[in-house]
Amino acid sequence: MYSVMDEAERRHLMESLIDEIQIYEERQPNGQWLKSIRFKLPIID
Question: What is the pLDDT of residues 9-41, one digit of tens each?
């Protein structure tokens, strides 16, 4: 499905799923730049 969506549809999908993204101001020594991603839907452990 994702591959047939245009950019606007992809962005809308991501905005529907993701509540918050936190990033580091600078890339970390291990290459990581994302601190956390909080999803709008519950993730079950």
Answer: 999 999 999 999 999 999 999 999 999 999 998
Domains in the chain, number: 1
For residue 44, tell me if it sits in a domain.
Answer: no
CA distance 20 to 32: 17
Structure tokens at 25: 């101001």
Identify the residue whose tokens are 């956390």: 36
Number of other residues whose CB lies within 10 A of the CB of residue 20: 9
**pLDDT score, position 41:** 87
Which tokens sit at 19? 């509540």
Beta-carbon count within 10 A of 13 CB: 13
